[in-house]
Design a protein that fits this description.
Strand 16 and strand 17 form a beta hairpin. By secondary structure, this protein is mainly beta. It has a 4-stranded antiparallel β-sheet with strand order 2-5-4-3, with helices on one face. It is 12% helix and 39% strand. The chain has 2 domains: 77 residues, no CATH class; 119 residues, no CATH class. The longest helix is centred in the first third of the chain and has 19 residues.
Length: 268
């Protein structure tokens, strides 16, 4: 007879294995930092954004719905928004017979919904109102900003960290630094180009006039992302003369800018 023994005299194997799988997936989900979708006004529950544009208020949305319905000249009816949005968040419309203008009935079947979308650098996580940061981004201060922080050693590429032509073993990138011009005398001006193949894969990088994989010692830049409405989280990335990115974010309603982890970021 086959006897199924428990683990350490406790739960049987047939119960332990599903429990471990559940905990693994649950912990993996908890490890992801999800951010909420941002509010962009109000949308129709029945019509697309192209048919009825999103509006800043429920009343404006209902008026726009009535305008869209009236644009169908083949319809037997016309519609007029009464100015009332019902407690169940539907537009209360008066319906008239188009040919005579005679009042016909009320219509309260058109839904008003909050227009929620994922902020820049993120995508919808499941069917709820949360978003997961895209690859190459990480949650910081309620926004998705540049991810994969590098160690302090990556600010410069010291001797001993390069091999071959050269290649950076830590990231597998091709690296090259060229001094094209150097002036003489005190405070001499230089023009130095730096190439890292991984930079070309990173969407937030500026081109510096030579493509995303290149930087030069005069290519310092600042990129600002502001999310609608005003006061929502914002993110800033600063490109240093060495081509490295520093990412910062500001949470909704806060005046403080927070560095994303150790503030040094490279493409994943």
């Amino acid at each position: 007879m086959l006897v199924q023994r428990g683990v350490g005299g406790g739960l049987p194997l047939w119960l332990v294995i599903p429990l471990l799988l559940f905990l693994t997936f649950a912990l993996a989900r908890d490890a992801r930092a999800l951010i909420p979708k941002t509010f962009h006004g109000y949308a129709s529950g029945q019509y697309t954004r192209a048919q009825v544009p999103w509006q800043s208020s429920e009343e404006a949305l209902c008026a726009e719905v009535a305008t869209y319905l009236n644009s169908d000249l083949s319809s037997y009816y016309t519609y007029q928004f009464t100015g009332t949005v019902t407690p169940s968040k539907t537009c209360l419309l008066n319906v008239y017979i188009r040919s005579t203008g005679q009042y016909y009935s009320e219509n309260a079947n058109l839904n008003v919904l909050p227009a929620l979308i994922c902020p820049a650098g993120s995508h919808a996580a499941g069917s709820g109102n949360e978003c997961d940061c895209d690859r190459g981004y990480a949650e910081s201060g309620g926004a998705c900003v540049a991810s994969t922080p590098s160690s302090s050693q990556s600010c410069k590429v010291p001797a001993g960290t390069k091999v071959g032509n050269p290649i950076l073993p830590a990231t597998g990138e091709k690296f090259r630094s060229e001094t094209d011009w150097r002036d003489g005398g005190p405070g001499a001006l230089t023009f130095v180009r730096t190439y890292r193949s991984g930079w070309g894969l990173y969407s937030l990088r500026s081109t510096a006039g030579m493509g995303k994989a290149w930087a030069h010692n005069h290519s310092t830049s600042l990129n600002v992302m502001v999310y609608y409405p005003v006061g929502a989280a914002a993110a800033v990335t600063i490109t240093t003369p060495e081509g490295h990115l520093r990412a910062f974010s500001k949470a909704t309603g806060s005046s403080n800018w927070l560095a994303a982890k150790d503030a040094l970021h490279e493409p994943s």
